[in-house]
Amino acid sequence: MGFEPFVKAQKIKPYFKRFQVKYKRRREGKTDYRARIRLINQDKNKYNTPKYRFVVRFTNKVIIAQIISASIAGDMVLAAAYSHELPRYGLEVGLTNYAAAYCTGLLLARRVLKMLEMDEEYQGNLETPGEDYSVEPAESRRPFRALLDVGLVRTTTGNRVFGALKGALDGGLDIPHSDKRFAGFSKDNKQLDAEVHRKYIFGGHVAAYMSSLMEDEPEKYQSQFSEYIKRGIEPDGIESMYKRVHAAIRADPTAKKSEKAPPKEHKRYNLKKLTYEERKAKLIERLNALNSAAADDEDDDDEDDE
Amino acid sequence: MPAGHGLRSRTRDLFARPFRKKGYIPLTTYLRTYRIGDYVDIKVNGAVHKGMPHKFYHGRTGSVWNVTKRAIGVEINKQVGNRIIRKRIHVRVEHVQPSRCNEEFRQRKLANDKLKAEAKARGEVISTKRQPQGPKPGFMVEGATLETVTPIPYDVVNDLKGGY
């Protein structure tokens, strides 16, 4: 006979009755509500003026940069830029590194300014990338203001989130920031080393790693940078590649609609809920199956006994 | 030691958060906009300590007279002695909800405007006044059977069963 050893049930019915679930997005671990409240809260005497957030999120393969304003019906996305659009501008590999984040931020900034017809006034930082640059207000309109929304990322110095921030700043958006967390800021003399930051923006750190692997471990170089090798990208050509991408982005930042037609039937990702009749019918089927199985067992037992 | 009469005295249950609703407050409270002249209900949210009104105003409804960065000025009537004073307080938005007290009125206004415009187009004159419910009309009682009840003569022998 198989008795369970006596274990006191840990989670009893009153536990579940008193349990307060956290918000759904907190349970999913996707939203930091403390930060969200502070980012969204608009002064009441500004009534319906939207407060835009510059949202940067990283997945394993893609960088997503969006300008979003909040509303009771749901957040509204004003403009978005994905790093999987960068092949259109000539960048095909390394779509989640610091330099790609810079490109995505730059693309989003130019796109938003073009959408609002402010791109002539606010060209952003055309030379000296790497130095701390803030937009200066022009005569007619004030610059487009957004607040950086990092999400749940740990904001260490040199994080790619700040690469995207730099891209948006150089594109011409007004985002309050400090240079403390850009790549190349040294804690010792409390200063941003513009040269180091510039190196990161143009993928210099990637190029340096490529060169060192080429000399020391050629097999690892083949496996790590196989896509680069396939496209014939050399460590020396990386900086000029990114320069071309930046120029292409500034030339035409408008979003392109995809030509794929939406699928006629919407694919279902979860099971459809059964109606009351369907559920009762299923139950009756199960009971019948159980009863016939039990009846067979009884018949077998009877036969054995006899 | 006597009980005190401090600002938040006797508010242990009044300002407590409801069961299983503790913690962060939903974001719609921050996203709502209020204009001067709107009616608002005051409902204290015990999770936010700043800008709390006095416990007297919990459950009162007033109209907005001022809008500042994070708070709203509300004008509420309070009876003091033999008169009612219009009191003006400032309350943070977390303790305020838009009131539905004049929702029915506003909807009726819209509907009436539409009816009046339609009537004007047809050239009629209509009254959009609400009429009170009048006395119920007369009606015939259906399916009634008549049962005549007559008194039964007193039967001494049966009724005195059990003991005399």
Number of strands of chain B: 5
Kindly report the average pLDDT value of chain A. 89
> Treating each run of at least 4 consecutive H or I residues as one helix, how many helices of chain B?
3
Which strand order spans the largest sheet of chain A, edge to edge or round the barrel?
3-2-1-4
What is the 3D form of chain B? flat
Question: What topology, given as strand order, has the largest sheet of chain B?
Answer: 4-3-2-1-5
Instruction: Provide the residue-averaged pLDDT of chain B.
Output: 91
Distance between the termini of chain B: 71 Å
Low-confidence segments of chain B, ≥5 residues, pLDDT <50?
Answer: none
Span between termini of chain A: 25 Å
Q: Which structural class should the secondary elements of chain B be placed in?
A: alpha+beta
The percentage helix of chain A is 40-55%
| Biggest sheet layout of chain A | 4 strands, mixed
Strand content of chain A: 5-15%
Q: What is the tally of beta strands of chain A?
A: 6
What's the alpha carbon Rg of chain B, rounded to whole Å? 30 Å
- Main sheet overview of chain B: 5 strands, antiparallel
Q: Which two protein chains have the largest interface (Cβ within 8 Å of the partner's Cβ), and how many residues from each?
A: A-B, 20 and 20 residues
**Helix-strand pattern of chain B:** HEEEEEHH
Task: Describe the global form of chain A.
Answer: extended
Rounded to an integer in angstroms, the radius of gyration calculated over CA atoms of chain A is: 29 Å
Family (chain A): Belongs to the universal ribosomal protein uL18 family.
Organism (chain A): Dillenia turbinata
Subunit structure (chain A): Component of the large ribosomal subunit (LSU).
Pfam families (chain A): Ribosomal_L18_c, Ribosomal_L5e
